[in-house]
UniProtKB/TrEMBL annotation:
This is M48 family metallopeptidase. InterPro entries: UTP_pyrophosphatase-like, YgjP-like_metallopeptidase. Residues 1-63 are annotated as: Disordered. Gene3D superfamilies: Metalloproteases ('zincins'), catalytic domain (3.30.2010.10). Residues 86-294 form the YgjP-like metallopeptidase domain. It comes from Paraburkholderia antibiotica.
């Protein structure tokens, strides 16, 4: 369990769009700014006034979590009262727990959280990283290396004939036009470039399919390399999808696509939003659980 160091000054946080949450349960609220007015030509886009009250988030013991918005992020934490003399911070697999004296006001607690925001957000990510890396395979970038592609291993070979990159889907072999003595970074860059090209092509196809199912239109889409989210959607119809999704089976990609497109009807993570996701992707719970245990920053091609 991580314990808090000396308090650090508050730090500015990056602005974000409405993101696919890594840890939020269906019916819960995720960190997101208030949606802007919907752009013309986006049928069914919900404005802020249509967002229903969110369901409360619960800690593993069933108690209600508190929430604090810091900049553009919303932090959920469990608060415990005790006879201790100071405010204590602890982070483990269940998230952030704050133990405070009974006489300390909630305003004082929130001030302390704000002052320690950099440490808190850093440690939350570090904890998840430490847990997941125990089972994370590392790629040795050389002839014969294997990388995950659509849920299956693809073997990388060097010295492609005719100096052209080729992919044999039947044999699951990616041939690179590089010499056997190629530097590992060269190999990694070429494989990553191919994966990103495949992501761009495939994600576009899946977006078209699910947009038609839901009856919505998105404005543009692009790949992202975000370290903390799989996708995002703005109220004006701009969608971003993490290219590393190409490592997962098609069903996982379809879930993220369905998730982001559903934001064009519900710019929130309310129960009504999850019902919208389920209407075009009924198996979303299983896919969501898979992504929950695989944060983007832990995938092997980074």
């Amino acid at each position: 369990m991580q314990k808090s160091p000396t308090p650090q000054p508050a730090a500015a946080l990056e602005n974000r769009q409405l993101d696919l949450p890594l840890f939020a349960e269906p019916g819960s609220t995720s960190s997101s700014p208030s949606p802007a007015a919907p752009a013309p030509g986006l049928p069914g886009t919900a404005g802020a006034s249509s967002v229903p009250p969110p369901a409360p988030l619960l800690a593993p013991d069933g108690s209600k979590l508190r929430s604090l918005t810091i900049g553009s992020r919303t932090l959920h934490y469990a608060l415990k009262r005790s006879a201790r003399r100071s405010i204590g911070f602890a982070i483990d697999s269940s998230g952030l727990t704050i133990t405070a004296p009974r006489w300390v006001t909630l305003a004082d607690i929130e001030t302390a959280i704000t002052e320690k925001q950099r440490w808190i957000f850093t440690k939350l990510i570090e904890w998840q990283t430490r847990v997941e890396q125990r089972a994370l395979p590392k790629i040795d970038w050389k002839d014969g290396a294997e990388v995950p592609y659509l849920g299956q291993p693809v073997r990388v070979t060097l010295g492609a004939p005719r100096g052209m990159l080729t992919f044999d889907a039947g044999q699951a072999v990616l041939q690179l036009p590089l010499p056997l003595q190629a530097d590992p970074q060269q190999i990694k860059d070429r494989v990553q470039g191919w994966l990103q090209g495949e992501a761009k092509r495939l994600f576009g196809e899946r977006l078209a399919i699910y947009a038609q199912k839901l009856g919505v239109n998105y404005r543009t889409y692009a790949l992202s390399s975000a370290a903390t989210r799989w996708g995002s959607c703005s109220s004006d119809g701009k969608i971003r999808l993490n290219w590393r999704l190409i490592h997962f089976p098609l069903s996982i990609i379809d879930y993220v696509v369905a998730h982001e497109l559903s934001h064009l009807r519900e710019m929130n993570h309310s129960p009504r939003f999850w019902q919208t996701v389920e209407s075009i992707f009924p198996e979303f719970r299983e896919a969501r659980q898979t992504l929950k245990s695989h944060p983007p920053e832990l995938l092997p091609t980074l």
